[in-house]
Amino acid sequence: MGLPARGRLTAGEREEQVSFGQFVLAYVSGMCGLAGLRHLAMASPGGPWNGRRARQTRGGPAPDVRPALPRSPETGPDLVRYTGRRPAPVSVALPETVLEGRSSLQADGGCVGQVTIRAASCRGSAHMRDGKPRQDAFLVSASADGRWIIAAVADGVGSTAHPEVAAQAAVAAAVRLTERAIGPGGLGPHGWEPIFRQVADEIGDRLAALDGAAGNPRPGRTTLLVLLAPADPRPGRTAQLAGVGDSPALLLRPAAGEWSLVLGPGRTSGRVQDDVTAALPPGVDELRTAALEWRPGEVLLLATDGFANALGNRSELSVALAAEWERPPHLLGFIRDVDFRRATFTDDRTVVALWPGTHDRRH
């Protein structure tokens, strides 16, 4: 038999090309693990475990090997997590600040010592509709000696000018200043206040440098939550937290499906609830601190209220995430979880989650 004509594929080559394209689609779509395999199985003729190649009849036409048509959201695996009542669709307007390096989505993951970290920040549908930038921010780092994890989450107050700038300035200053202040045992009991005062000053300086910021009656404001945690969380070692505003620190015990509030508004109730928030600058007088001994099997989370308020009390979302976050998910799956869709919950949402006693391994 001669070679196929240039530019044409044999049936076997077409099948290989289709199968590889379906695999890439399943992976990139975030359908990781079983969900991705399910997508591939339902799209591939005969399923990926069939092992049989399409037969080509000698002298006859090649078999019709075509990828499955895209399925509707009602029948196919969702690329978006819906929870509760589905919201109405919104037109997505791209904000101008994307050109300045502040994207609508920020995410990262990996491990520091014996702690696995996942972090994601997503623009909410209200800001999508209005063409406003994401006003949440996060930053995660490790100390120079690798013994400590430093993480910060901030939520710019949308009713003020340039809240996204205030949030970015807050997390950058908080992580840098916290690392400088670390002592042999972390931070002392009064170590957080000078850090937050200097952060407030740096936010003010950053906002003052913006064009048209001088004399603005509502200059930028932001919440701030900071974590200093050991990278080797052995018994007796504590994670230390400090915050201003309504961005909470949460503790998830997946085995019990239990979410509890470690630091934030409404702490005495043990549940997450909204509150009128304090913010930086100035806001340092509203500083809250906490420390906890962090054990394997517990997930420590820093979040903004756009995520925390949607959890509710034994809601569909809280039950589903408690099960899925028993172990660190793939980063694409974590982004999907944080970027959920639920009617009336349209704010930006940010989560930094830490699993102790685990090591991030990917295949």
UniProtKB/TrEMBL annotation:
Chain spans, region Disordered: 47-83
Highest taxon, organism lineage: Bacteria
InterPro entries, sorted: PPM-type-like_dom_sf (IPR036457), PPM-type_phosphatase-like_dom (IPR001932)
Annotated protein name in UniProt: Protein phosphatase 2C domain-containing protein
Organism: Actinomadura chokoriensis
SMART domains cross-referenced by the UniProt entry: PP2C_SIG
Location of the PPM-type phosphatase domain: 116-356
Pfam families for this protein: PP2C_2 (PF13672)
